[in-house]
Amino acid sequence: MNRNAATRRQLLAGSVGLGAWLLVRPVAAAPDELATVIQAWTGGAPVQNGRVKLDIAPLVDNGNTVPVGVSVESPMTLADHVTAIAIFNERNPQRDVARFALGPRAGRANVSTRIRLATTQKLAAVARMSDGSYWSHTVDVIVTLAACIEGEAS
Amino acid sequence: MAHTLIKVPASARRGEIIAISTIIGHPMETGFRPGADGRILPRNIIQRFTCHYNDELVFSAELFPAIAANPLIAFHTVATTSGTLRFSWEGDQGFRHTESVSIEVT
């Protein structure tokens, strides 16, 4: 009896371990792709965390239209300003979301739009400064209703 | 003709940072979705948005299929002189739309 209970415990522990491995594996594999597209956009330049704020609801009910805002800490003067902001995603069919070009005439480095999210994933906003440095902010977003990659309702 | 909704203050003080918000009616068809007949609907998106302030480019955006239908783009600019703000959208299937709004700067 006792021996039986022990085997069941071992079996349960083993199956939990296998389940966790299956869950964790794809999540751990994906961020590399996000890092790769960001590196492609920066041309290999190092990207630092900070100065950028990606504003999005952490829990999204409807992935078809999700409000997103990006603001960057910058004086936006001729000498020191943001030249570009790009938004990338991890698990839509395509990694690009939008790219914005701005300059000292913008006055404030703050843009917003509405995007589609196919599933729960990471989103990254990257800003290029006039001095050539890159700054970013990455957030996790949980999506309950995905944007339709399926067909139209007929 | 696409419907647009553009919010620009009618007047501003010189040097003031003004908020601009634009929406244009457009399906932003992703090119990843099958239609009712089961075949993939061809991509039909707006690819580029620009804002010219008195013919000088002050802001532009490149859009991808991940932008929601009826794209909203909001940004800021510094009110420099009275004149016009020209907004242009360009995209797939020869899509092209331009709107102008005048602003008075005091």
Task: Explain what you see.
- The complex is a heterodimer of chains A (154) and B (106).
- By secondary structure, chain A is of the alpha+beta class.
- Chain A has one domain: Immunoglobulin-like.
- Helices cover 26% and strands 38% of the residues of chain A.
- Chain A has helices spanning 2-29, 31-42, and strands at 47-49, 52-55, 59-62, 66-72, 82-89, 96-101, 110-115, 121-129, 134-145.
- In chain A, strands 1, 3, 5, 6, 8 and 9 form a six-stranded mixed beta sheet that branches. In chain A, strands 2-4-7 form a three-stranded antiparallel beta sheet, with no helix packed on it.
- In chain A, strand 8 and strand 9 form a beta hairpin.
- The termini of chain A are far apart.
- Chain B has a single domain (4-105), classed as Immunoglobulins (Immunoglobulin-like), CATH 2.60.40.
- In chain B, the strands form two sheets. Chain B has a five-stranded mixed beta sheet, with no helix packed on it.
- Chain B starts with a strand and ends with a strand.
- The model of chain B has no long low-confidence stretch (mean pLDDT 95).
- Strand 6 (96-101) of chain A pairs antiparallel with strand 5 (56-63) of chain B.
| Average pLDDT, all residues of chain B | 95
The run of helices and strands of chain A is HHEEEEEEEEE
CATH class label of chain B: Mainly Beta
Question: Hey, roughly how much beta strand do the residues of chain A contain?
Answer: 35-45%
**Biggest sheet of chain A, open or closed, and with what strands and sense?**
6 strands, mixed
Overall, the morphology of chain A is: elongated
For the termini of chain B, the CA-CA separation is 34 Å
CATH class of chain A: Mainly Beta
The class by helix and strand makeup of chain A works out as alpha+beta
- Unreliable spans of chain A are 21-27
Number of strands of chain B: 8
As residue ranges, the low-confidence spans of chain B are: none
CATH architectural group of chain B: Sandwich
Radius of gyration over C-alpha positions of chain A, nearest whole angstrom: 21 Å
Query: What is the C-alpha radius of gyration of chain B, as a whole number of Å?
Result: 16 Å
What percent strand of chain B?
over 45%
Return the CATH architecture of chain A. Sandwich
